[in-house]
Amino acid sequence: MTAAGADPGRAIAATLAPSGGRKTAGGRRRKPTVDYVTFMAVFLGLPLAIFLIFVIWPFIQAVFYSLTDWSGFSPEMNIIGGENYLRLFNDDIFMTALGNNILLAIVVPLVTIVLALALATMVTVGGPSHGPIRGLRNSSFYRVVSFFPYVIPAIITGILWGQIYNPAGLLNGLLGLVGLDMFESFPWLGDERTAMGATIFVIVWGFVGFYMVLFVAAIKGVPAETYEAARIDGAGRFRTAFSITIPLIRDNIQTAYIYLGILALDAFVYMQALNPGGGPNNSTLVMSQQLFRTAFNKGEFGQASAMGVVLAVVTLVFAAIVFLVNRLTGGKEERGRA
Amino acid sequence: MTTQAITTAGAARGTSEPAFTRKPKDTAGDRAVGAFSHTVLVIWSLIVILPLVWTLITSFKTTREIFASPFSLPANWNFDNYVSAWTQEGIGNYFLNTVIVVGFALVIVMILGAMCAYVLARYTFFGSRAIYYLMLAGLTFPVFLAIVPLFFVLRNIGLLNTLPGLILTYVAFALPFTVFFLYSFFKGLPDEIAEAAAIDGAGEWRTFFQVMLPMAKPGMASVAIFNFLGLWNQFLLPVALNTNKDNYVLSQGMASFASSAGYAVDFGALFAAVVITIVPVLIAYVIFQRQLQGSVSQGTMK
Fold it and tell me: Do residues A270 and A199 lie in contact, with contact meaning Cβ atoms separated by under 8 Å?
């Protein structure tokens, strides 16, 4: 009865799901009574004012500052057009950071999703191939354990793994135990070849469990009859995973890819915890670190704002690419099946 | 024993499976797949658990013991490291600041977010779509785009490096997510109840606080859990906007502790501080794990 644990959650989720029908409650005309006016002023005005002042207004200002040579503390500021951007694209260090971000945005979601999907599949439909479709025994234990890193603050995750990767840390100790003595006091974060890989693993470690739970819920949303039909048709486990599971939960995968990609394009916390200086030969330097340094250490606020705009544009382009790829491959799938 | 479970499970589920006349055995393939899956899952569980256990043990060791061997057990099991982390390194102070900031921000954002979502979901007026899309923009653009101007906005109103300033910023950046989640929630609530309240003479305020908000409790709980995690983990906003050491929150305090003075760090105390930070979330996680995983699942049902 491993599935029973998730059933209440699903029942709740089903009742929670928006009904989709458009409500017309507000459609009728209201007289602007005192009650109504104060209600709107407080309910809409207050949150909106905070949101506009602290989120939207800074966004707009950032775009403007990026066109100036403002240094922040002097009132003088000259509009210099695209010069900040031009300087960025000729700045080798910033371009290295951009490249690292793009690498992260490709690898982190890919590894996390493949691993989470594999674990979720085992947990939900990895059981014996007879009787009702079910997962492994004790699967809720695995779910509870793997989800836990998600609730640990990211900075703590970083510090923790920084100590594990320490030359005298847990990892080298374990490798020594199994006889790999050449790793004795190997600096995982201090070597250009391993720094980025080690960092990526830390981010993956933090998020696999979360996306595993997400995919488990999605897979449980697929009717058992679909899996039974596939089994009767003689589909094996891999065939079922690739032809049933993945196509049916592809929207969840797309959402996961976008969230993880946005996270990887930021990555500030992890990088600051593992290699605050940008890593050996800037091999783990990311745009956000460079932005922070340019703004708050060097005081070049115009230049830093331009970096912020580049970061925002890259984020939007990334999301657009994921949507586009999903649309294109999805379309092909439909035609193939017809 | 397994077949017994299968027959009862099959009967309970009411599947089309006929009563078993023969006892199906797990095939060799099934057993291989099961063993393989369990192995993979156990390995991943170990990758999750081992670092945490190691941290716990190491937190009782002295710095010299830590560098002598990663596996040795501490010679003395005592809480010296915890005491020095809590008092000398200021973790206690950071902890208190975090509780204050996250507590206030969470309450404020839940109230304001629910109010805003309620109005957007249930009233049509000029500009409501525009506000909705503005919220979407706030959710999509990276915080890094706003961080430089935000610094000066807070400085100009005199709230830079203060806890109220940090609370306001937390509220502002948690608002779009809160509004989005609760928007679909309030949209799904039946009209009849609001109408009944109106007929009974309840004003707009009373309808919200006494009728609609209580109905939204499950949604509020889910959003509150995610907001709590997000705000407790927030790092960039305090690092940029709250640089007075007395006002540090836990995340930035830990970062500065870990990097301060390089090799002069008291590593025993560092590990103790890590444990101090993890234990509250671990306890909360064990208590709320059902609800939390349920909340994640809800997100997928949309």
Answer: yes
